[in-house]
Amino acid sequence: MPKAARRTSAPRAAPYPAIKPGDKPPTLKNSVWTSASGNVQYVLTEKTSPELNSASAPVGTENSTKKPSTKKASQKAAAQSTAKPAGSFLDIKLDGEDDNSIPIYDTCSTVRQKINALLGKDNHKPENAMPGEFDKQGNPKPYTKASFCRAIDSRPDMLARFLKAKLMMGGAESSVYPKAYAFFEKKRIFEGKKKTPGRLKVEAE
Q: What does the pLDDT look like over 85-111, one tens digit per residue?
């Protein structure tokens, strides 16, 4: 039986020539580099890199095309919208306010009606909003029991007891009564509203 032919492998590729002293490094685009021995030539092709391209870009061209951050713009707009106005009815000074001797011309029942109107269903009206306070959508914030108590320097439990009082002058001993009256009197003056006939009658008496 004849022997099978011996398998031979394909000829090996020429080894990568070592760089010898005197060889010049490739620096030119699409140039031919000949080794020092003179028997091997290489065609050099320059490869571009995104990092190199961005680094070689003129200074200022990239930053000039960037748009301002929307987050910073929204924060700036929110800060401007929440800035309190120069004039607020809470800044008005009434006669006798410094020594707590403000003359009161509204009954406890009338003051309770005003408080309920401020904190009730119609509290979303613009005239019942807190001065200079806005939500994220830019709408005026209405008064709540907590914010109203802060405005008159009182406590929620004291306000609740005053609102539960009955009769025309029920709750007159509460500290909420004169403070709430001063709050609404400042608001009336700031809005330029006229005095009611009942108010004028009490003043005359």
A: 446 888 899 998 888 899 999 999 999
